[in-house]
Design a protein that fits this description.
Shape: globular
Radius of gyration: 14 Å
Helix content: under 10%
Number of helices: 0
Structural class: mainly beta
Largest sheet: 7 strands, antiparallel
Distance between the termini: 42 Å
CATH architecture: Sandwich
Number of strands: 12
Number of domains: 1
Order of helices and strands: EEEEEEEEEEEE
Strand content: over 45%
CATH superfamily: Jelly Rolls
Length: 123
């Protein structure tokens, strides 16, 4: 088992402390990305603080599941706009142009397969 400040990796499990992971800039805002190590290819989990001027983008291979934790706003999916509020879940399939917009909007994002920055394409 290996352990550091924000991650524990066992033979058959992993534990991440999202709040302790340093944020990384992304098209949506700031993401704290868990399970991004070499021992996992299945999925990752990101705690994302959405910025007001998020950028429209899409992925060719990756499916994303967004779950709104707090705040309010909207999501643009292939030029359609839909309301976001706590408890809302969104499944975004490969090829769907998307961006979330809101004030104090915080989401949990689950990319499947694990997030790959090379599969992030800007519109």
């Amino acid at each position: 088992m290996s352990e550091n400040a924000h991650e524990i990796i066992g033979k058959n499990f992993q534990i991440a402390r999202l709040a302790e992971i340093d944020p990384t800039p992304c098209p949506c805002g700031q993401a704290r990305r868990a399970f991004m190590n070499d021992q996992n290819e299945v999925a990752s989990m990101h705690l994302v603080e959405i910025k007001k001027d998020s950028e429209t983008h899409y992925h060719k291979r990756m499916t994303e599941i967004y779950y709104v934790l707090e705040g309010s706003g909207h999501i643009e999916l292939d030029d359609e706009t839909h309301e976001l509020r706590p408890g809302t879940a969104v499944l975004i399939q490969p090829g769907c142009k998307h961006r979330a917009v809101g004030s104090d909007l915080k989401i949990l994002n689950i990319p499947v397969p694990k997030f790959n920055p090379e599969d992030e394409h800007h519109v």
